[in-house]
Design goal:
about 260 residues; 2 domains; alpha+beta; about 30% helix; about 25% strand
């Protein structure tokens, strides 16, 4: 179910990117099978490969075997080098609006761009602990470190899109990356709301799945001077590993849960 959560989230993100200004820059997708993408109404662009990285992104010296065994990000986009930025508008309310990345006129021929005239954007979607996203940022860098060295471009940019297991959507780690990948402000926020709802739904599903698992035992601890909050640690009987913790507040009747990251 954790893999399914990740793949569905990737589908939502790829669908949004495929409708944005950099849709034609998508050259590779690895966000599930073609059938799964079709079920989510995600159309693979004609110039994009599904599950296979294009050979023209690599140097001629790299063998086909090395290309196949290198890490696979959830998506790869190739864009021309950005032109010099024009002066920002002086109108205050326009100046404050963050604008999405806009393609140049030759964006439809990204595969024909010479190495020194192209940027490669790697998209990696990861779930993280809501209050500690830094661990997954480091994991993403390490995961694609070798791939970044093999890719041939003026610049290789890794976009690690983070989603909190409890539904957190981050400005810097989620929304800003979506805007850099061609979504306008409204579409980025719309996608963020859909990702939030999706994450909360799967947090609920994972909670039920683990609570009904016979391989876990329940350990109860009371917190607070009046015992307002009780934590239940689910312990894997076989390994003794604490796999899940649920906190329940009996005062408000609300519950919050922490799910395992991707």
């Amino acid at each position: 179910m954790i893999t399914e959560r990740h793949n569905v989230a990737c589908g939502l993100i790829m669908k949004a990117i495929s409708r944005g200004s950099l849709a034609v820059c998508l050259v590779h997708l690895d966000a599930g099978s073609t059938d799964r993408l079709f079920q989510q109404n995600v159309q693979i662009p004609e110039n994009a490969n599904n599950r296979t990285k294009p050979s023209w992104l690599f140097g001629a010296h790299l063998s086909a075997g090395d290309r196949l065994t290198s890490s696979r990000p959830d998506a790869i986009l190739v864009t021309p080098l950005p032109t010099k930025k024009s002066k920002s508008p002086t109108t205050p309310h326009l100046h404050q609006v963050s604008q999405p990345r806009q393609p140049s006129r030759d964006v439809r021929r990204v595969h024909e761009l010479i190495i020194n005239m192209r940027e490669i954007h790697l998209v990696e979607v990861k779930y993280c602990e809501d209050t500690r996203p830094g661990h997954q940022l480091e994991a993403s860098k390490k995961q694609h470190e070798v791939l970044c060295k093999h890719l041939k471009a003026k610049k290789v940019i890794l976009h690690t899109i983070l989603l909190g297991v409890g539904g957190s959507i981050y400005t810097s780690h989620t929304l800003n990356h979506l805007k850099k990948l061609g979504l306008d402000v409204q579409e980025a926020h719309k996608t963020g709301l859909m990702l939030h709802a999706h994450s909360v739904l799967y947090a609920h599903k994972l909670t039920l799945q683990i609570l009904t698992s016979s391989s876990f035992s329940l350990v109860e601890e009371t917190h607070g001077s009046s015992g307002q909050c009780v934590s239940f640690s689910l312990i894997d009987v076989g390994s003794g590993f604490t796999a899940y913790v649920v906190f329940l507040s009996f005062l408000s009747g609300m519950s919050a849960s922490s799910c395992p990251p991707q």
